[in-house]
Amino acid sequence: MGIESTAHTASVGIVDNKCRILANESSSISPEKGGIHPREAANHHAENLVPLVHQAAKKAGVPLRELDAVAFAIGPGLGPCLRTGATAARALALSLDKPLVGVNHCVAHLEIGKATTRCKEPVLLYVSGGNTQVIAFAEGRYRIFGETLDIGIGNLLDKFARSVGLGFPGGPLVESLAGKGKRLLQLPYSVKGMDVAFSGMLTAAIELHKKGESLADVCCSLQETAFAMLTEVTERALAHLDRDEVLLGGGVACNGKLRSMVSRMAKDRDAEMFVPEASLCVDNGAMIAWTGLLMHKSGVRLEVEDSSVNQRFRTDQVDVSWA
Ligand code: AMP
Ligand code: MG
What we know:
This protein is of the alpha/beta class. It has ten helices and twelve strands. The protein has a five-stranded mixed β-sheet with strand order 3-2-1-4-5. Strands 8-7-6-11-12 form a five-stranded mixed β-sheet, sandwiched between helices. Strands 9-10 form a two-stranded antiparallel sheet.
């Protein structure tokens, strides 16, 4: 069983050792105004995790005592949210007398993609609300080849959508309006080496809308520019590592425009793009369960005393003993 609670989503998944998804039950908080308030999100998770655990067990047809281990996302994420998930996981593991496994959330996005698509040695473009990273396995670790220097791509879309009154979550709303856009407006294109930055683009896009540019044109330009930046750094990682597989992960991987730009780039260099199904792209418990299972089978053990969460747990800090 895997428990996810790093940000807005509380989710409990159960997988078997062939990565069949037996259950993947989620509940997300969607604030009406402003961003995610960590304390409010943690309260949401505290209310929902216990029912989700039972719902997942029922859906999977697996009594809790038959679980092999209880995994949870130990970081990175929002402190109060992480601690709520960790508390649920510890209580469950102790009461059932099962091993506890602490999983890196970003690595879980990659492992579930590898297990459920045909890719073998991908470069992962991980694009979610809070995270934007280009990750690949190299010399014994998952390494970050590029990342955002400020906000995540999903945050860019969500913050823009909110500030122009579109609502939340912004990504899908921006995507559908962008389809009606006709003009490419100039926005700051900030790629620095392998890294990207989005906050300047956010300010510029809000300004364009204030100056009277049509919302459809601004949405279209926002997608074109931001996704071109992501495609560029992903291509550079592919070239650098001499790889021919790109895997998308994170909620923004649901976006059709991003998929078409990345797959076009991949095709042009005889590479292939892979995207897990939407329920496995967004934050979910199944990916934590699967990565936890890989870790558990490779002998990773975690004592309750050592199970403090790590808000800034970096992808490249993970000791990948199971690869
Ligand atoms: P995650 O943080 O991985 O759970 O993903 C949530 C993020 O995905 C939010 O920022 C959403 O706005 C974004 N998102 C979901 N669907 C889409 C879409 N179709 N296009 C762009 N962003 C999306
Ligand atoms: Mg995520």
